[in-house]
Amino acid sequence: xxxxxxxxxxxxxxxxxxxxxxxxxxxxxxxxxxxxxxxxxxxxxxxxxxxxxxxxxxxxxxxxxxxxxxxxxxxxxxxxxxxxxxxxxx
Length: 90
Prior knowledge:
Helix content: 10-25%
Order of helices and strands: EEHEEEE
Number of strands: 6
Mean pLDDT: 87
Low-confidence stretches: 1-7
Shape: elongated
């Protein structure tokens, strides 16, 4: 899985983005803010799911259901409210 940051909007430095991205590669539910260590919340996502007639893409107001594969996510720190939006997962 590769994460692309070119189109993302972020309140973090490049180093902070790298730390968050590294964590997100393992598990989106355990991503911590690079500044204060608080858990980051998935505030939105785009995901895909294989169907008999093709692939369906859909937006969600948080993490996608487990049967869906996340394409991109928006994260927000639960403590400092900093955001990282448009983190693409490919």
